[in-house]
Specification:
The complex is a heterodimer of chains A (about 800) and B (about 350). By secondary structure, chain A is mainly beta. Helices cover about 5% and strands about 60% of the residues of chain A. Chain A has 6 helices and 51 strands. Chain B has 2 domains: about 120 residues, Immunoglobulin-like; about 120 residues, Immunoglobulin-like, CATH 2.60.40. In chain B, the strands form 4 sheets. In chain B, strands 2, 3, 9, 10, 15, 16, 19, 21 and 22 form a 9-stranded mixed β-sheet that branches. Chain B has a 5-stranded antiparallel β-sheet with strand order 8-7-11-12-20, with no helix packed on it. In chain B, strands 13, 14, 17 and 18 form a 4-stranded antiparallel β-sheet that branches. Chain B is globular, with a radius of gyration of 22 Å. Classes of the chains: A mainly beta (about 800), B alpha+beta (about 350).
Chain lengths: ~800, ~350
């Protein structure tokens, strides 16, 4: 009912403002040299100071009353084009923008300067074209888009050796990471040292820390929307890089010029191969190794002026092998993601854009351990077990953009997901006998949603965004619920659900709103509100984010997570939009968060429901984010500072006393600078400072049954040393012609060799008898100063 | 276990490649003072209670400071002198202003007061009731009045379960001279039976202790009413080991935990109640997770009530089999008793 009323109201508002006779200018904006769509390029009607931007497919549309206007088309790093157009009929105009030449003078002059950050109704959004990321220092020389976004205020990295990131106090599972519309469940390789996104295959990314528009949902903290390159429409290009620990190669080009293109990109690390010669033959680590690889592929076909088809896919795996000296004990741990998307863009008319998507996403984690004593008569001692967990989703959705007039941008659509969860399942073989705990472990669920949102420019001063999303979630059988005794030791009953039988259902109505009020041309005030539900959860036995963490759906026991966020901000640009600044304040409530019970072990869930071992709680977070960015010129970069406080409260943890979240961080500062010295040399630096992570440490000890027992303090009551680090990089353009490019990148990670805390443990020395027994606290740090060289090349 | 292997290998990998370690100073808050109770009552035996208190995590650990953890009644001073503590050492002890420990047999309402006593093994002082002995299928309430606070807990001695068969398995790595013991017993038909295993090697141990390695408790969750087994039982871990020498990574720790030929071993299978089991279960989970930086360590439950109290008051329904390991394949049963 509420929804109906809302839609009627919305349509009335749209109708009211559409009285004058208007003509529409629409088309695509592309890179002139490669044919790539430019996402977020600006189209501005100079006389009216009105404008729009291209969508994810490079499409734009703007309607104006009859008349002559000068229209400017611009995009950062490209030369601006201006056209005088007569709006006396609907106009289709595709624009090809040329990249600015790589000379310092022109960069200063011709790069786009825009006040979009001030004029846009959206707040808490950051757009990051990948080219801007490429010269920043990168860990082991591997450019990493996810690492770069962690340098923005409000987005926190968890430190070295941790793959999760934390947006405004939300958990790592509350970030929706989508690659060409397909969600990626575990976006990192090697425990977070590298993201799964190969920068060569990526074009652009957009990050929403709050004020999420209604087309996004299913996660309560943030959206990281990543677009893959489409592939060059004009000519064949082979590009890649050879680095210290990994190499990559990307090939893309037209299948039919300006109609059809492809892209294939692959990457593999060779740490395992490099280390091999240095491992002695008798070393216990011989035969052990680690590597990861990933492949991105995309195909795009423009089969008419109004229709385009995209096929894109990603597949990546991390593989860890361990085999003991004698060869009798072997372990193989592969984990990874796969995604696939088919999309069809259809331009119904110049004001109506439609996108249909079908996709799948898959994440798997396997541990395969085997023991073979080698002697025939001792088969009792041989065993093998395979622990498996994963999630697989199938999606279908349709999204529509309707631009009735320049004042309104209406987006609406619907989608459906079929989720397939496999919580920890075990298959074990002991000699001849076999135990199979995989049966009946799968959890199935349907998720469906509808949304509508309108960006409404009321006048030169006020822009309003209103959106509403309705979502529903159904857990269905086959499913067995085990009912436990109070002490959790025994299953006292069980309920079985048949195929397709409803186990639990949840509904969610999610209002989203934001408002911008211009204060003169250079500054604006914005406010936003969003409420979201999330039907999936990440359960982590460990205090850090590891690939072993388990994705679980909402069930009859686990309620959906819910988040509510309020934010206000002040945005102001200086010196003709050369500098962007902003201050944002947010407050966020989180409900129905999950944690494993104290001391739960992976074995507990084998003949049981994983969610029987969860405890539930709430959280909140608030903070202030300050951001200063210099957009163009020889020197570019930004400073972000966040002050925040993030708390959790679980009845079953410390008796309900609120405790700081693991990544509660009072101060978080990051600075990035990029300086173009001349045509050949570019210098860049990154500095980060963050309050130390919290941890739980023992505070006392006692003797019992001949053992010294540690008595732990309150959850996360100890704060480790702050994290800080300086990275430097130098990029040397050795050669750059129309046919060939050769660029060297030298980088140093952690320049002053800061020993940042990873974890603290306690060690004992001496003996009680000799009276010299001592407890020593030791801090383990992961990455010392680490230089890297990468050679990047491009053949055209 | 799997997780441990996994984490261990991950850590190894990192250690090889990058990580480094530094000694740091950790500033921990002053802990809340707590009373630690270790009390038990078993079939046909007097109840025992040991009382200690917790200490700061970085407090020195030596024999003196360990004794400072003991809570003693002032009547123990002559006993301390008797076993050779000097006057200055005795001054380091804390003597309770008020300490009354009683055990009540709930079925009969018989009350006995526990008196300080010298125990022949660490921590050498405990409180023992001299006239009361544990009866199977009875419940016992422990009351402690200590310096104005009251602590209490209740436990049951369940019906013991006899050992059905017992055997010795030698370890080929030690030329069949060392090995482990296995036992089998029939679990009663109703679900919710819990067992603990202890042993004592004659001439080596003075009391029943838990095995060196492996599990010491099991429940009938998965095999109710069936035949249950404890296999690979290792030799009891002597608490006094704690005082012996520095940790030697080269030492053959596995061999330390094996029974040798010709020993006479007392194997004790006990039945325990749910609360008592939950204590040991959380205890073993704590030991498995303690010190692992990647997990939130399990907290140890307690079946005692009162402010700031830790520990356990547990009843054991015991069945003891005394065996002689005669050669690499046989065990001679010398006696058994409920």
């Amino acid at each position: 009912m509420k929804l109906k009323l809302f839609i009627i109201l919305l349509l009335t508002l749209i109708g009211l403002s559409a009285f004058a006779q208007k003509y529409t200018l629409s088309g695509y904006i592309k890179d002139a040299t490669t044919g790539e769509d430019l996402i977020g390029a600006n189209i501005i009607i100079k006389e009216e100071h009105k404008g729009t931007t291209t969508n994810t497919y490079g499409f734009y549309s703007i309607s104006m009353p009859k008349g002559n206007y000068i229209v400017s088309f611009s995009y950062i790093g490209y030369e601006t084009i201006e056209r005088k157009l007569n709006f006396n009929e609907d106009i289709t105009l595709n624009i090809n923008l040329k990249p600015t030449a790589y000379t310092t003078q022109e960069v200063v002059v011709s790069s786009e300067r825009t006040d979009k950050n001030v004029q846009d109704s959206r707040m808490s959004v950051v757009k990051l074209p990948v080219d801007q990321v490429k010269t920043l220092p990168a860990f082991m020389g591997e450019v990493d888009v996810l690492k770069t976004i962690q340098l923005l205020p409000g987005i926190q990295s968890a430190g070295d050796g941790n793959s999760g990131f934390y947006v405004r106090g939300g958990g790592p599972d509350q970030n929706l990471v989508i690659l060409d519309e397909a969600p990626v469940y575990n976006a990192s390789h090697l425990f977070g040292f590298f993201s799964v996104f190969n920068a060569d295959a990526i074009k652009d990314m957009e990050i929403y820390k709050g004020g999420m528009p209604a087309q996004y949902g299913g996660r309560i903290s943030s959206v990281i929307d990543i677009s893959m390159n489409n592939g060059n429409m004009k000519q064949f290009v082979a590009q890649g890089g050879i680095g210290t620990i990994a190499s990559r190669l990307t090939v893309h080009g037209p299948i039919k010029k300006d109609t059809c293109s492809f892209l294939v990109s692959a990457r593999r690390t060779y740490l395992d191969l490099l280390i091999k010669p240095f491992i002695k033959k008798d070393s216990p680590f011989k035969g052990s190794g680690y590597y990861f690889y990933d492949i991105n592929a995309k195909f795009n076909f423009k089969f008419s002026e109004k229709d385009r088809l995209f096929l894109s896919g990603y597949y990546g795996q991390d593989i860890f092998n361990f085999s003991a000296e004698s060869g009798t004990f072997q372990m193989r741990i592969p984990w990874g993601n796969g995604t696939g998307t088919i999309r069809w863009n259809h331009l119904v008319n110049s004001r109506f854009f439609m996108n249909t998507t079908a996709m799948f996403s898959d994440y798997k984690f396997t541990t395969d351990i085997g023991m073979n004593p080698g002697t025939e008569d001792d088969t009792d001692a041989s065993f093998r077990f395979i622990l498996f967990s994963g999630i697989r989703d199938y999606y279908f959705k349709q999204d529509y953009t309707w631009l009735p007039n320049p004042q309104h941008t209406v987006k609406f659509g619907a989608g459906y997901t079929f989720h397939h969860f496999t919580p920890n399942s075990l298959k074990a073989e002991f000699g001849e006998s076999e135990i199979d705990f995989t049966k009946g472990k799968k959890l199935l669920a349907h998720e469906a949603y509808l949304y509508i949102g309108d960006d409404y420019i009321i006048n030169d001063y006020i822009t309003l965004y209103g959106g509403l999303r309705g979502a529903s979630f159904f857990q269905v059988g086959p499913f067995t619920r085990y009912i436990k005794s109070d002490d959790m030791l025994f299953t006292i009953d069980s309920i079985s659900y048949g195929n397709g039988e409803l186990v639990a259902d949840y509904y969610s109505l999610e209002p989203r709103a934001s408002i911008k009020v211009s204060l003169g041309g250079k500054s604006s005030l914005k406010a936003s509100f969003m409420q979201n539900k999330q039907f999936i959860h990440l359960a982590s036995l460990s205090a850090s984010t590891l690939p072993t963490d388990l994705w679980v759906p909402s069930t009859d026991v686990v309620k959906p997570q819910m988040g509510r966020q309020y934010a206000i901000g002040y945005f102001r640009n200086f010196k003709d939009n050369l500098y962007e600044t902003s201050v944002e304040f947010y407050y966020k409530d989180l409900y129905n968060l999950i944690e494993y019970m104290d001391g739960a072990l992976p074995g507990d869930e084998l003949n049981d429901n994983s969610d029987n071992y969860f405890v539930f709680g709430n959280g909140n977070s608030y903070g202030a984010e300050f951001f200063v960015k210099k957009r163009t010129g020889r020197l570019t970069g930004w400073i972000g500072y966040t002050w925040s406080k993030t708390m959790r409260e679980f009845n079953d943890i410390d008796g309900g006393i609120p405790f700081p979240a693991k990544y509660d961080r009072r101060h978080d500062l990051s600075l990035t600078l990029n300086y173009i010295l001349n045509e050949k040399w570019t210098l860049a630096t990154v500095f980060v400072y963050a309050t130390g992570n919290t941890t739980t440490l023992p505070v006392a000890r006692y003797m019992l049954d001949g053992e010294i027992i540690s008595e732990y303090g309150y959850r996360n009551s100890y704060r480790m040393e702050p994290y800080h680090r300086l990275d430097l990089s130098v990029t040397y353009t050795h050669k750059k012609t129309d046919k060939y490019e050769s660029v060297w990148n030298f980088s140093v990670y952690n320049v002053y060799n800061r020993k940042n805390p990873f974890f603290i443990y306690f060690d004992y020395t001496g003996s009680v008898d000799n009276g010299n027994f001592q407890t020593v606290a030791k801090q383990v740090s992961l990455i010392p100063v680490l230089p890297a060289i990468t050679w990047n090349f491009k053949f055209m | 276990m799997k997780k441990t292997i996994y984490i261990a290998t991950v850590i190894i990998l990192f250690v090889i490649i990058w990580s480094c370690e530094t000694d740091i100073t950790v500033d921990l808050p002053t802990p809340q003072k707590k009373l630690v109770v270790e009390g038990f009552i078993e079939s046909n035996n007097n109840p025992y209670v040991f009382l200690t208190k917790n200490s700061g995590y970085f407090d020195p650990v030596d024999s003196t400071s360990l004794y400072k953890m003991l809570i003693l009644d002032s009547t123990t001073i002559p006993m301390l002198e008797q076993i050779g503590f000097s006057q200055t050492e005795i001054e380091l002890f804390e003597f309770a202003e008020e300490l009354i420990i009683t055990v009540t047999e709930l079925e009969t309402s018989i009350i006995d007061t526990l008196k300080p006593s010298i125990i022949p093994y660490f921590p050498f002082f405990g409180y023992v009731a001299s006239s009361m002995t544990g009866n199977n299928n009875n419940s016992y309430k422990l009351d402690i009045n200590y310096n104005g606070s009251h602590y209490f807990g209740t436990t049951t001695i369940p019906e013991p379960v006899p050992i059905d068969s017992i055997w010795f398995t030698t370890d080929t790595a030690y030329a069949d001279t060392l090995g482990t013991i296995g036992i089998r017993f029939i679990d009663p038909p109703q679900i919710g039976n819990f067992y603990a295993i202890h042993n004592m090697v004659e001439g080596e141990h003075l009391t029943f202790l838990k095995p060196y390695f492996g599990i010491s408790i099991i429940d009938d969750r998965y095999l109710n009413g069936d035949t249950l087994k404890f296999t690979g039982i290792t030799k009891a871990q002597d608490n006094n080991d704690f005082f012996e020498g520095e940790f030697d990574p080269e030492a053959d720790w596995w061999a330390e935990g094996l029974f040798s030929l010709n020993s006479i071993v007392n194997i004790r299978l006990s039945t325990i109640d749910t609360e008592h089991f939950l204590f040991w279960n959380s205890w073993s989970r704590h030991l498995a997770t303690d010190g692992n930086p990647f997990v939130n360590p399990a907290s140890i439950m307690s079946n005692l009530h009162g402010e700031n109290v830790l520990g356990v008051w547990g009843g054991y329904g015991t069945y003891i089999e005394r065996v002689h390991i005669t050669d690499s394949a046989t065990l001679e049963i010398l006696s058994n008793k409920h």
